[in-house]
Design goal:
Elements lengths: L12 E8 L4 H10 L7 H10 L1 E9 L2 E8 L5 H9 L4 H9 L10 H4 L1 E2 L9
Antiparallel strand pairs: 1-3, 1-4, 2-3
Length: 124
């Protein structure tokens, strides 16, 4: 059986990003815990919504994190990441989660999470 292509969604942009976490099982468990439903600081979620991020998911494969970020259609990634970095508590959050990541505590989210290049799309 072959399933038909799904209808195109409403206009939005999708970004995929990756970063390395520290290869330590206790830190990985703690990183999962701070991203559990209701555990992320509300100011962080609010800031993402304010800059045009509609939805975000983070997946793990070992100590490799993979993010899918859906945004409004006219989203300007660089401008939005600068605006997000200036939001209240964002720098504090980035310093907090840096303990789990292979990164510098002063790095912004845009510096940590590397954009991935899409090389294939079904139906494209």
């Amino acid at each position: 059986m072959t399933f038909p292509a799904s209808p195109p969604p409403a206009a939005f942009k999708r970004y995929c990003k990756t970063l390395q976490l520290r290869p330590d099982s206790a830190l990985l468990a703690a990183y999962k815990a701070v991203h559990a439903p209701g555990a992320t600081w509300p100011e962080i979620t609010q800031g993402m919504r304010e800059v045009g991020i509609l939805d975000m998911e983070i997946y793990l494969a070992g100590h490799q994190a993979f993010m899918i970020m859906d945004t409004v259609a006219d989203f300007d990634h660089d401008l939005a990441m600068r605006a997000l970095a200036a939001k209240p508590r964002q720098a504090e959050w980035e310093a907090y989660v840096a303990a789990f990541q292979q990164t510098d505590a002063q790095a912004t989210a845009a510096e940590k999470w590397q954009l991935m290049e899409r090389i294939y799309k079904l139906g494209a």
